[in-house]
Amino acid sequence: MADADRERWDARHAVAGAGEPAPPDALRGRTELLPAGGRALDVACGRGTVAVWLAARGFTVDALDVSPVALEAGRALARREGVDVHWRLHDLDAGLPAGGGPYDVVVCQRFRDPRWYPQLADRLAPGGLLVVTVLSEVGEGPGPFRAPAGELRAAFGHLEVLHHVERDGEASLVVRKPASPAARR
């Protein structure tokens, strides 16, 4: 990501409010889909509201973002809520960082780069949950950051689809990676 992009995100996060811990959009009203705990990855975590929400539910959370300002806001929120999150500065234009995983939950909210969709799925543990929300052309029309209709289902349809919706300029998907045959015994 160009320095100008990082500076733009830093400026945007510098004026945003503190925020409150909250589930990812695609899990609102569906939090029963979450596993009881484990490891979680929050990709493009922004100010950390989802990462802190997951940590408060007992997950060990790794949170990635390109903005140092956003990560500092996340650290402050985690301190206020009394939870630990591993915050990591990372430019997602290069894909996900090497290593890490497998994760019981992977969240990617408001960051879209179809080149990295396979990496998101690959980070899931057997039985793991992937939660993705992106801007969509459905109900809004085309745009440089908007997914065409059906993009998420096409990218992750090989996983068990638990929830999928495209409307009002957003697309959300919740999928589960099948448990390995050894785990079913």
Total number of distinct structural domains:
1
CATH topology label: Rossmann fold
Within CATH, the superfamily carries the name Vaccinia Virus protein VP39
The count of helical stretches stands at: 6
Low-pLDDT ranges: none
Helicity, as a percent range: 25-40%
Shape: globular
Rg over C-alpha atoms, rounded to the nearest angstrom: 16 Å
- Estimate the strand proportion: 25-35%
Give the tags.
7-stranded mixed beta sheet; Rossmann fold; 6 helices; 7 strands; alpha/beta; 185 residues
Task: Summarize the structure in words.
The protein contains 6 helices and 7 strands. The chain is α/β, with parallel strands linked by helices. It has helices at 3-14, 49-56, 68-81, 117-122, 151-156, 181-184; strands spanning 38-43, 59-65, 86-89, 103-109, 124-135, 160-167, 170-176. The radius of gyration is 16 Å and the shape is globular. α1 (3-14) packs parallel to α3. Strands 3-2-1-4-5-7-6 form a 7-stranded mixed sheet. It starts with a helix and ends with a helix. The chain has one domain (21-184): Rossmann fold, CATH 3.40.50.
Give a quick summary of the entry.
Helices cover 27% and strands 28% of the residues.
Q: How are the SSEs ordered, and which strands pair?
A:
Layout: H1 3-14, E1 38-43, H2 49-56, E2 59-65, H3 68-81, E3 86-89, E4 103-109, H4 117-122, E5 124-135, H5 151-156, E6 160-167, E7 170-176, H6 181-184
Parallel strand pairs: 1-2, 1-4, 2-3, 4-5
Antiparallel strand pairs: 5-7, 6-7
